[in-house]
Each structure stands twice: as structure tokens, then as C-alpha cells.
């Protein structure tokens, strides 16, 4: 797994196009790439830097529960969606604190501003946890993944639970070519905090093995993609558990896959590190339904990666 990831990093650095982007940070990107990971080789968790697997788990369970409010994530000490909710808050009339315009870039470039920003962010997340009404108003991210997977709104006003429906199809019609869940709803794109990056996934059953392919329109190679790989590999294992199948391959297909220009040094550090063995996934044997799993029911064993590498998030 790690070798394929590093080859992609080298390809982007050497052959990629330098482009502007929504955040103003700048990227180097390529268009169109695919990686394949056989679950028999181990769980695909990057080893050239530590990936916080419990954050992967709590985020995926957040999606599976159909939740779109960061309060659940904060309760599990998961802060990976904080910036998106905070951006909505500071742009609202309710916010009366210091100017937070372009806080993502400014916090990287101005140390004094970063201290103010971090203070405001702590106040915001603390209030999300403590104040249910405030959380309802400013912690919700709109129709992001959880809503689209579990409560897609049809034109007829019906609610479609795509995830539950596809699991039933795998159980009863495994050779179907329609084993698909989509998160890309054009109607909701303008109002979502972040339009879905991993937009569509499809299952495939062959004999006793279940495989999953993801199409990702936009992939942040350093920060996002290691999480995405682990998240969808975990989703594959959980659905395989419920449907009585073995986890086969995770196939990861990209549109625009890129490295932010302020992540080049971090990527180079990874390229200089030795690849280590992949860990193994442990799932609580007492749980069978994907909808019953909690964070403590899932862990990796034998994960001994290189040290964490920090990098700023582009918002």
C-alpha cells in the first residue's frame, strides 16, 4: 500500500501541473490515477507517517450513522472537520469576535494571528460540546456524506437510505451492477460546507469476496488520501462482515489528485523513509451489523509507523 502511495507522490512532484485552487494555497496535481489494495496483504494504513486510526474510525462511523454535526466528532476528540463548521460560524451575524477572514492561510503566515485564531477555535469547539442549541445552529455541516449516504432527499420528498439499500442488494442480488452509493447531489453542492470529494463508491461480489471501488473527484495526497484509503478499506471490511463475505480489493480511482504547495517538504520527508509492514484489522467478533459498531469495536494491531508529520489544512 505504502509503495503505491509513494509512487503516486513522486509522479505528482515530477509530472504534475502547478495550479491555483479554491483555498489560495496552490497545488501540484495530475488528473486520473488508480491504486489497488488487496486486503489479504494487510490493512492499508500508511506507514511512512503515523495516521491517527481512531480518527478514521470515528469519522467513518459518523458517516454511517447519518450524522452531519461535528458534535459527535468532538465527543470522540476528532477535530478534522472543525475548520469547516468554524468558517460557517465566523461568516455569520452571530460571530462578534476578531476578524477571521482567510483564517486558514493567515494562521500559517502570522504567528500572532494564529494565537488569536486558536483561542477562537477552542472557544467555538468548547461551546459546541456544551451548548446543544449552539451546536444545532453552527455544528451542522449541511448535506455532507452522512446525509447523502443515509437520508438522500428525492424529488418526491422521500428519504432514501442508500447504504442500507446497497447492503441488502449485496445480500440478495450480489451480481448486480448497481451496488452503488453516491454522495454527489448537484442540488446540495452550493449549500454543503464542503462538496463531497469522495463522490461515489461501488461494490463487486465474486464468489465469496467483496470488493469496493471509490471514485474521488479531488484528493489531497498528504493529509486526506491516507485517511480516505483507510476509511474505505474499513468500510469494505464492515460491509463484508455484515454480508458474510471476505474483504477482497479496495480500488481507489482519482480525478484531480494533488499535493498542496505547502506540503512539499512533508511529502519529501515521507519519500526518504523506509516502508514498514502493514498492520492487521481487528473487529469485535460479537458485532455483525455495520450499524452496531462503535469506536472501541475497531482497532488495528501491529501498526508501527514512522512518526507523525504535521501540516496545515487548506480551508
UniProtKB/TrEMBL annotation:
Binding site for dUMP: 22, 177-178, 217-220, 228, 258-260
Active site as annotated: 197
Localization annotation: Cytoplasm
Annotated metabolic or biological route of this protein: Pyrimidine metabolism; dTTP biosynthesis
BP term (GO), one: dTMP biosynthetic process
Xref: Pfam families: Thymidylat_synt
Function, as annotated: Catalyzes the reductive methylation of 2'-deoxyuridine-5'-monophosphate (dUMP) to 2'-deoxythymidine-5'-monophosphate (dTMP) while utilizing 5,10-methylenetetrahydrofolate (mTHF) as the methyl donor and reductant in the reaction, yielding dihydrofolate (DHF) as a by-product. This enzymatic reaction provides an intracellular de novo source of dTMP, an essential precursor for DNA biosynthesis.
PANTHER family membership: THYMIDYLATE SYNTHASE, THYMIDYLATE SYNTHASE 1
Record's protein name: Thymidylate synthase
Amino acid at each position: 500500500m505504502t509503495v503505491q502511495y509513494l509512487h503516486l507522490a513522486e509522479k505528482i512532484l515530477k509530472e504534475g501541473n502547478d495550479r491555483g485552487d479554491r483555498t489560495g494555497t496552490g497545488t501540484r496535481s495530475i488528473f486520473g490515477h488508480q491504486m489497488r489494495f488487496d486486503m489479504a496483504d494487510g490493512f492499508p494504513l500508511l506507514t511512512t507517517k503515523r495516521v491517527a486510526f481512531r480518527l478514521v474510525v470515528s469519522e467513518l462511523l459518523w458517516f454511517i450513522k447519518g450524522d452531519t454535526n461535528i458534535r459527535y466528532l468532538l465527543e470522540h476528540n476528532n477535530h478534522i472537520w472543525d475548520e469547516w463548521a468554524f468558517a460557517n460560524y465566523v461568516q455569520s451575524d452571530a460571530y462578534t469576535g476578531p476578524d477571521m477572514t482567510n483564517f486558514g492561510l493567515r494562521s500559517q503566515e502570522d504567528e500572532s494571528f494564529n494565537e488569536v485564531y486558536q483561542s477562537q477555535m477552542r472557544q467555538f469547539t468548547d461551546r459546541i460540546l456544551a451548548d446543544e442549541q449552539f451546536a444545532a445552529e453552527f455544528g451542522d455541516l449541511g448535506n455532507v456524506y452522512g446525509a447523502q449516504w443515509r437520508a438522500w432527499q428525492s424529488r418526491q420528498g422521500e428519504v432514501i437510505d442508500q447504504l442500507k439499500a446497497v447492503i441488502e442488494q449485496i445480500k440478495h442480488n450480489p451480481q448486480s451492477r448497481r451496488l452503488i452509493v453516491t454522495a454527489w447531489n448537484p442540488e446540495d453542492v452550493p449549500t454543503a460546507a464542503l462538496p463531497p470529494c469522495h463522490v461515489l463508491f461501488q461494490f463487486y461480489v465474486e464468489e465469496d469476496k467483496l470488493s469496493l471501488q471509490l471514485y474521488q473527484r479531488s484528493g489531497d495526497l498528504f493529509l486526506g488520501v491516507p485517511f480516505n484509503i483507510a476509511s474505505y478499506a474499513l468500510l469494505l471490511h464492515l460491509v463484508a462482515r455484515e454480508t458474510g463475505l471476505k474483504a477482497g480489493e479496495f480500488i481507489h480511482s482519482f480525478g484531480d489528485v494533488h499535493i498542496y504547495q505547502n506540503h512539499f517538504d512533508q511529502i519529501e520527508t515521507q519519500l526518504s523513509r523506509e516502508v514498514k509492514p502493514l498492520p492487521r484489522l481487528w473487529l469485535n467478533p460479537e458485532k455483525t451489523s455495520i450499524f452496531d459498531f462503535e469506536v472501541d469495536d475497531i482497532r488495528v494491531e501491529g501498526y508501527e509507523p514512522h512518526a507523525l508529520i504535521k501540516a496545515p489544512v487548506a480551508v
